[in-house]
Amino acid sequence: MLDVPAVRLTSLAHGGGCGCKLAPSVLQDLLAGQAQGGPFERLLVGTETGDDAAVWDLDGGTAIIATTDFFMPMVDDPDHFGRIAATNAISDIYAMGGTPLMALAILGMPLGKIDTATVRAILGGGAAICAQAGIPVAGGHSIDCPEPVYGLAVIGSAPRGRIRRNSTARPGDALILTKALGVGVYSAAFKKEALGKAAYDEMLASVTKLNRIGTELAQDEAVHAITDVTGFGILGHSLEMARGSGATLRLSRAALPWLSEAEHLVQQGFVTGASHRNWASYGHEVDLPEGTPDWQRHLLTDPQTSGGLLVACAPEAADRLLAAIHAAGYRAAARIGTVEAGPGRVVVEG
Question: In this structure, is the dihedral angle defined by the CA atoms of residues 50, 143, 204 and 87, taken in order, positive or negative?
């Protein structure tokens, strides 16, 4: 690759982070005619509930977990981009209750627009996060691509009995979220050069923190369901849990944790296009408090990149689990709602 002048990575991409994801309604249409796994009896988790990763029963006791995730840059620092993308990809393994084993790099770069040193830094950032997770980047694939793209395919494993799905929440469960929301709002402000250094550092710390707590949570029988909150926002991923579980998820708007400047920035108009697409896709399955202003709705549909885990657990264990999550370093974690019998939809209370 030829060396070329430095350029803002985000200027080469039409979107960034998990805000690049297809709208939920578009994804549903694309998958509508696809086989749900066919006659593969050992495929424990496929596409049927929009779960975080595929799961294969290896030998009756051990399950293999496989996932892939990649996107365009939401930041300009190439090392940071690599770290964010890798953290986000590995999260799917943790969300299933697994332990990551190895990763393969997925790389698409616009030849002639990005220099070699920048690409090396992206790969280096991803490898550094994989090292934190205790796994190698064992290979990968690269192509010439109009926009910069980076991510990982990740393989993990777990005892079959410790797999946690997004579709197994139970009426009466408490809901815990492990990270603060508002990443999409911050990234929108960053792209318009309106995000201060302190807020950038706050965002970076969140999106590069591995969700390894998911592996520990899955070892607790009181934890019934887990999913990670990414591009569909807290409403979209709660709705996936509600639909899959055949239950209603009731969220407390006042209890939701936010990055410190999220509310201020969204009221200034820093909203991603994905936030609008998300609401258009699933708003008819969500009940908001009467008179909810648009800026609050935009926060609820805000696409998260490398967001936290949404955990459904037995109510009597919620305080104990939340304390353990806090002790593990997820200081923004909070109880945010409950699961109740009812149709598969989300109800937000003030």
Answer: positive
Q: Pick from 349, 341, 347, 348: which is nearest to 245 by CA?
A: 341
**Would you say the C-alpha torsion 77, 83, 84, 86 has a positive or negative sign?**
positive
- Residue 335 near residue 255, CB atoms below 8 Å: yes
Give pLDDT tens digits for 10-63.
888 887 765 566 666 665 676 666 655 567 889 999 988 899 999 999 999 999
With H, G, I as helix, E, B as strand and everything else as coil, classify residue 184: helix
> Which amino acid, residue 271?
V
Tell me whether residue 130 is one of the annotated catalytic residues.
no
What pLDDT is attached to residue 4? 44
Percentages helix, strand, coil for the chain (3-state, rounded to 5) are 40, 25, 35
pLDDT in tens, 298-341: 999 999 999 999 999 999 999 999 999 999 999 999 999 999 99
Q: Are 31 and 19 in contact (CB under 8 A)?
A: no
Identity of the amino acid at 297: R
What is the β-pairing status of strands 346-349 and 247-252? parallel
Taking alpha carbons only, the member of 103, 290, 341, 305 closest to residue 204 is: 305
Active-site annotation holder among 18, 20, 130, 313 = 18
Task: Using only the alpha carbons of the chain, give its radius of gyration.
Answer: 19
